[in-house]
Design a protein that fits this description.
This protein is of the alpha/beta class. It contains seven helices and seven strands. The mean pLDDT is about 85.
Length: about 180
């Protein structure tokens, strides 16, 4: 069984567990952790994550941040300067603010109720422009059901490392990994 198959199997187990309505925002966040080299394989399997969620009688909504950076740059008033001297480019907090807005909109939409999963994809495209930990902390109070963060990186000892390159951050989210015995049936 491949790593992605095990990740999907562990997600299926997680989504079928009973959901407590009395959990904090941090505990409503699920990180599906996989090696960054598997990004395209995971993306190809998103319909299976959705199907597993629907089979468990939960709703499904997704928010894809893949095009956020190119759209932001294309609409930026200094885009020509950014392209001319990309080494001086800094997105500061503007890009993160846009990402937060998109995720909050998805989490507060009518179909993203307390019994639904909102799946967040496209984080790899924002690597080096914003911190995932900051994004998650800013949206956690908007999550009514569960926020599934498809996270290219690693998880060990309650520490998440985005794209295996940054210092890790300790976060109270529920990790879902491809470890074979991660969740016991």
């Amino acid at each position: 069984m491949s790593n992605i198959d095990r990740l999907l199997t562990n997600y299926c187990r997680q989504v079928r567990l009973p959901w407590s309505a009395h959990t904090s925002g941090k505990q409503r966040i699920w990180f599906a952790v996989y090696p960054p080299a598997e990004e395209r394989r995971v993306r190809a399997r998103i319909p299976q994550f959705e199907a597993a969620t629907l089979e468990a009688n939960h709703g499904w909504t997704s928010v894809n941040l893949t095009n956020l950076l190119p759209q932001w740059i294309a609409s930026h008033e200094y885009r020509e300067g950014i392209f001319a001297e990309p080494e001086h480019f800094s997105a500061n907090s503007e890009l993160e603010d846009l990402a937060v807005e998109r995720v909050r909109q998805a989490c507060t939409a009518a179909d993203a109720d307390a019994d639904a999963v909102v799946a967040l994809t496209g984080l790899a495209t924002l690597f080096d422009f914003m911190r995932v930990s900051s994004l998650i902390e800013r949206v956690e109070d908007s999550v009514r059901g569960r926020l599934l963060v498809l996270f290219p990186g690693e998880y060990a000892g309650n520490v998440y490392r985005f794209m295996d390159a940054r210092d890790g951050f300790n976060y109270m989210a529920v990790p879902i990994t491809s470890t074979e015995s991660f969740i016991q049936p």
